[in-house]
Amino acid sequence: MRRIVTSLLIISAVSVLVIGATQAWFTDQKVLGANEVTTGDLEVRVGGGPLTVSNIEPKPEEEGSYVSAGVFWVRNVGDYDMKWRGKLNVTQNDHNVSNYLKVRAVMLTGTVASNKGLPSDCDYGPGPDTSTVLWSGTSLNDLTVDNTWILMDDPIYAFAPGYRACYEILVRMDPTAPNSVQNSVLKANLVIDATQRANPGWSQ
Questions:
Q1: Exposed/middle/buried for 198, CB within 10 Å: 0-12, 13-18, 19+?
Q2: pLDDT grade, residue 21 (50/70/90)?
């Protein structure tokens, strides 16, 4: 019995020595500091305008019947590809004159844009020095309905940071306009709504 106890004590002592030996590895530790994650900024900027037409008169839809209301631009000054859309918030619409106004929107680039008084870096569009009709004959009244937005960018090409898109807006009055709309005034704010291009919708 004494031999068994002695043997157990020897085994226990050896085990402690072995365990102690396995904990004697060299170790070291370093810290790679100043690591961080930041978010970027989504920011759209607009300029040009205001869009104004004076003494417009009824005309049929034919070449030359549209009158220029002016030009404006949209620029991506943020960090992400974006998409954007526009709508009108009407503040005055005498005799519902918007029912008889038709709108044409044209995207301008390069020298075509600068010849209209726009910045020389209008680089978003189908190509340099182009004038592209985006839509024509659209009722201005349709653009004033709540929650009616017009997509203004190209669904194929990303509106990348630094790009500037330039537009001319033209207006004509439909020949069906009645006498009651004479001396009428329409005033509205153009609202540009922008979000990330990767956003499948438009809300947050």
A1: exposed
A2: low
> What residues are paired with 167 via a beta bridge?
72, 107
| Residue 39 resides in a domain | no
How many domains, in total, are found in the chain? 1
CA angle 45, 66, 180 (to 5 degrees): 105
Find the domain containing 95 and state its range.
58-179+188-196
pLDDT at position 85, please?
Answer: 87
Whether 203 is in a domain gets the answer no
Q: Which two tokens stand for residue 129?
A: 């020095």
User: What's the CATH number where 123 sits?
Assistant: 2.60.120
Burial per residue of 160-195, b for 16 or more beta-carbon CB atoms within 10 angstroms, e otherwise: ebebbbbbbbbbbbbeebeeebeebebebeeeeebb
SS3 readout for 108-154: ECHHHHHCCCCCCCCCCCCCCCCEEEEEEEEECCHHHCCCCCEECCC
- Report the distance separating Cα 15 and Cα 8, nearest Å: 10
Residue type, 155: P
Q: Contact at 8 Å (CB) between 91 and 189?
A: yes
Dihedral, 98, 99, 102, 108 alpha carbons, nearest 10: 40
**Per-residue pLDDT tens over the stretch 59-68:** 887 767 899 9
